[in-house]
Design brief:
The chain has 287 residues and is α/β, with parallel strands linked by helices. Helices cover 36% and strands 21% of the residues.
Length: 287
């Protein structure tokens, strides 16, 4: 059966009422469209853990700053619908901005707190408040049993998980590993803006993370030095931040930290801003 497309909240809720009445478990995959294999991995996982899969396609204006690429962000709805139809997605929710924000940008926001102002939040002020607000709205609209996100957006994953716990939202957050191209570059809708030379340079981000992981048994300084050495060799890569955070707090780890940590990197390659991350075990301690 072809994927049903709902453009209004009322229409989607009506479609989902029958699913719930039949006792089916619902999974939501929130996206901004321009779907690539990373999104498709989320959708495939959703189909494994739930009976009914909903994919939302909405370019959320609240998470873009005044100098960011809202108007430039790729919108490929017809192609996206063909992809989800082939995967057997049950419902697509593709609202307009007017449907989601009928009175304009909502004055009520979910705030991301101190961690939301770090790393991506420092470079994109208000970004995570916009993300959490739209995710909160989507969770209220769909009321899924599961919601799926990719590990590539590690800070977003952390903040959504914390919001769900703090606000007692009855949903399980399922995180899917980062999907990469054959050269190791984390898949992103923005990768399409890279020319051939920039694409080769962008793969330096994943190489830097591999270098960081290889140096983890020698401590924080060695990890950062190894990653920076790789990035310094890429003239097209302008580093925004490179840091190591604790997975439980998403705050920078102490100098003597042992065990699991996450290396975060963000850089501009040409005019395109990219992010990536890797889990490492400092001092070789897996705890």
């Amino acid at each position: 059966m072809p994927t049903a497309v709902a453009e209004t909240i009322t229409e989607l809720r009506s479609l989902l009422a029958d699913e719930r009445a039949a006792g089916r478990r619902v999974a939501l995959v929130p996206t901004m469209g321009a779907l690539h294999d990373g999104h498709l991995a989320l959708i495939e996982r959703a189909g494994e853990i739930a009976d009914t899969v909903v994919v939302s396609i909405f370019v959320n204006p609240l998470q873009f700053g005044p100098t960011e690429d809202l108007d430039k962000y790729p919108r490929t709805l017809a192609d996206d619908l063909a992809k989800v139809d082939r995967l057997g997605v049950d419902f697509v929710f593709a609202p307009t901005a007017l449907e989601m924000y009928p009175s304009g940008p909502t004055e009520t926001r979910v705030t991301a707190g101190a961690v939301g102002s770090l790393y991506e939040g420092r470079s994109r002020m208000g970004h995570f408040d916009g993300v959490l607000t739209v995710v909160s709205k989507l969770l209220n609209i769909v009321q899924p049993d599961f919601v799926l996100f990719g590990q590539k957006d590690a800070q977003q994953v952390f903040l959504v998980g914390r919001m769900v716990r703090d606000l007692n939202v009855p949903v399980r957050v399922e995180v899917v590993s980062t999907v990469r191209d054959s050269g190791g570059l984390a898949l992103s809708s923005r990768n399409r803006f890279l020319d051939a030379r920039e694409l080769r340079a962008a793969r330096g981000l994943s190489i830097a993370l591999e270098a960081a992981e290889s140096s983890a048994d020698r401590g924080i300084d060695a990890v950062l030095a190894a990653a920076q050495s790789v990035l310094m060799g890429e003239s097209l890569v302008q580093l925004d931040y490179l840091t190591i955070v604790h997975p439980d707090t998403f705050l920078p780890v102490d100098d003597d930290h042992h065990g699991k940590a996450i290396v975060l990197v963000a850089a501009r390659v040409g005019s395109t801003r990219l992010i990536d991350n890797a889990t490492i075990y400092l001092r070789g301690t897996r705890s």
